[in-house]
Every structure is written in C-alpha cells, then in structure tokens.
Amino acid sequence: MYxxxxxxxxxxxxxxxxxxxxxxxxxxxxxxxxxKAALRELKExxxxxxxxxxxxxxxxxxYLAAQKFNPDNAELNLKIGDCYLHSGFKPxxxxxLQKSYKLSPDADPRIHYLLGRGLHLNGKWQEAIAxxxxxxxxxxxxxxxHPGRYSQExx
Length: 155
Description:
- By secondary structure, the chain is mainly alpha-helical.
- The chain has a single domain (about 20-135), classed as Serine Threonine Protein Phosphatase 5, Tetratricopeptide repeat (Alpha Horseshoe).
- The chain contains eight helices and no strands.
- The chain is globular, with a radius of gyration of 18 Å.
C-alpha cells in the first residue's frame, strides 16, 4: 500500500510540475516590461512563421528571445523546434520538441511527427520509428492532401 501511495504521489507530482506556462499578465504581472518585450518578439516571430511559405530562419531569433523570458511555453518550444528542423541546425530541434511534449502532449497535432524527425536527425532510430508510428492517422482516417498539391481523387 505504501509503494502505491509513493508511486501515485510521484506520478501526480511530475504531472503537476510539467505544465505549459502561458504568456499572460496573471503569470508575469510583476515583470510587465519583460512580458511586453516577449509578446512583441512572439508577434514578430509569428508574422514570419505564418507566412506562405514560412520564413523559419527569420522567426527563430524572435522565438528564442521570447523563450528566454518564458522557457516553459509548449507552443513556443514547438515552434522553435520546427524552425530548427527547417534550418541548418536541425539536431537542435529535438530538445525543444521534447520539452514541448513534456509540457503539453496535446499542444499540437503534429508533435509526434516533429518528434520523429528530431529523433531521426539525432540518430535515435528506434525512438523515431515509434514517434512516426504514433503520428500516423487512425485506421480508416483519410489523410488530408498537402496544401497546394492534388489529392488522389483529383488524379
């Protein structure tokens, strides 16, 4: 019984510790200037990241600046990892993607695919295969076509 209690305590202790921290006045009200600067950096990064095509290398420095203020935001860590995957420094992506997943496993539907790429590029083959498999759509689900490309029905 004692072991079960310790296991439960450890499990919930870790779950409570690993949570994504949002950029909000409630969380960072004591550092309003730092929050404003971080939000400006996020906005600049997002404008490059959301372009068509995305400007990953332009977004990355802004995201890294915002991450210095708040290193525990799952979405931001995922975007940094994604930017690194599209840069000349691909292996750096893994730590940011792993942190994003640890903070919020459901933050983005692409997380398993991106983790698979990060693991793959770091030579962690078996772990990469597991993440790629987790990224596959459920059986019977239709995979959406890539934007700008034809679907099977169009051919």
